[in-house]
Amino acid sequence: MQYLKDVQHNDNKMINEAINGLYVEQGDYAALRASIDKFGNFDTIALAQSLEKNEMIEFRRISAYLYKCNNRWAQAVELCKKDKLYKDAMEYVAESGDAAVAETLVSFFIEDGNKECFAACLFACYDLIKPDVILELAWRNNIVDFAMPYLIQVMREYMNKVDGLDEKEEERAAEEASQPAQPMMGLGNQLMLGPAAGMGMPMQGGMPMQQGGMPMQQGGMPMQGQGW
Question: Taking the CB of residue 69, how many other CB atoms lie within 10 A of it?
Fold first, then answer.
């Protein structure tokens, strides 16, 4: 054992698995947990499977931890539920970010009649569960009182969001009201089109007139008409 400890800093897979196996034989779960946290070069799933049915609960707890480290959230939570390691289960569910796993754990506490853990789970998994789902479950199982702190917190959060939107809208309206009125663009140009279009010539019926009183066609040529 001392030799293995001396060379474990190399993080060799065979050495890690050998020393981890010795820790299990000795029942030293604390040393095993420290070893797997510091030296990760070993078959984590194989060790987790070998510890699932160990007679010591702390080794089974390490098994759930190893499953969690491999993103096997459902297996990790299931092991925690079997050993009533509810705090670990809530932490793993919150870390998973999986809403379905969170709702499964909430439903488990309701079915198990564990109202206190149900209430605690609502806050541990706050971002993963939907208020309408919780309200319906609480109402159907007559445990609204245990869901009420969570629901009050949700209502408060929603009200803060609504108040924030109202404040932004008021600021926007006040900013628009404080800005001076903008002149109508292009109006000045339109007014200048009249004199420019006729090049300073007199107009008749909307057409420029040449000297002598004859209307001009486009291009500056006199228009043909009667008498031409």
Answer: 15
Three-state SS string over 123-146 comes to HHCCCCCCHHHHHHHHHHCCCHHH
Instruction: Give the whole-angstrom CA distance, residue 166 versus residue 22.
Output: 64
Three-state secondary-structure class, residue 189: helix
Quick check: 51 and 62 in contact, CB under 8 A?
Answer: yes
Residue with tokens 């089974």, as numbered in its chain:
60
Q: How far apart are CA 208 and CA 216, in angstroms?
A: 6
Of the candidates 116, 66, 54, 53, which has an alpha carbon nearest to the alpha carbon of residue 90?
Answer: 116
Torsion angle, CA of 136/139/145/149, rounded to 10 degrees?
Answer: 10
Per-residue tokens: 91: 């932490």
Which DSSP symbol is given to 71?
A: T
Question: Domains of the chain: which residue ranges?
Answer: 43-174
Q: Are 16 and 35 in contact (CB under 8 A)?
A: yes
- Strand segments (E) across 101-202: none
**What's the count of helices (H) and strands (E) in the chain, helices before strands?**
12, 2
62, 68 Cβ separation under 8 angstroms: no
Digit-by-digit pLDDT tens for the chain (228 residues) are 888 888 999 999 999 999 999 999 999 999 999 999 999 999 999 999 999 999 999 999 999 999 999 999 999 999 999 999 999 999 999 999 999 999 999 999 999 999 999 999 999 999 899 999 999 999 999 999 999 999 999 999 888 888 777 777 777 777 777 776 566 555 555 544 455 444 455 555 555 555 555 555 555 555 554 444
